[in-house]
Amino acid sequence: LLKTSIGSGALSFPYLFMTYGIIPSIILTCVSGLFAVVGLILYVLCADENGRNTTLSELASIYMPYSKFLVDFSVFLKCFGVSLSYLIITRQLLPVVIKTVFGNTIVDNPKTLLIVFLAFTGPFCYFQKLDKLKYTSFCGVVAIFFVVLATVYRYAKTEVPNNIVVLYFTTPNINYLSGFGKFVFSFTCHQNIFAIHSEMDDNSVPRMKKLIYFVAFSALILYIPFGLINYLLYGQMIKDNIIQNYPNDVLATIVRFLYVIVMGVSYPLQVNPSR
Description:
Blueprint: H1 2-5, H2 13-20, H3 22-50, H4 56-63, H5 68-102, H6 110-121, H7 134-157, H8 175-185, H9 193-199, H10 205-234, H11 250-274
Pfam family, one: Aa_trans
Subcellular location: Vacuole membrane
Protein name: Vacuolar amino acid transporter 6
């Protein structure tokens, strides 16, 4: 569940800090996490009421039959969009990693590398149960943790220029509207809560609530430091994808490689509920 929540959205947090300022960004992150928790708990209560094998589609059929198609299509559209974003990010990162490590080779073509990436991740998409993905998901969470540590290390070892501008608050602008969705998107793991509820041995409501609280809190303590530290490091020069700001050094190559791993283990988690 944590790996479903934490994906490509983390890369946008430094840009969100630049757009909104430090204080509003922290507040909006916490509020988005709170709403995500409320939604997940409501889903768990519904699943507990209707049985272990309940799905979102079945809930729609029971309580709002006319909305079943809309619910199914919404889940598919969300998962399809997120999966596509993973492929786009991988297509950007993987060629840079290959060129940095091996130099110019025949396999540094983005299309070729994307096909290789899909060849490795594709088989994991055929698992019927999310439980089969727990080890790959754990690797993804560890990779994200090391990405955050690498950010802290870079900030500690880098002398920040005096011209870096950091704001606690910013003047509202048109970018505010597009940013709200990114805050919410960063906590979306709701499509998998029913499968997790079904597969857990102890899926009681108190146990599920503890899981939800843990996931939301873990996401918060990863998102906020990652966004804040990169903002302090690059200020108003931050790009939408923070990795584009990184210099082409060893640490940046490691971060890019780790995020390719994150994308690889995240992809099946989005494909599974959209089938």
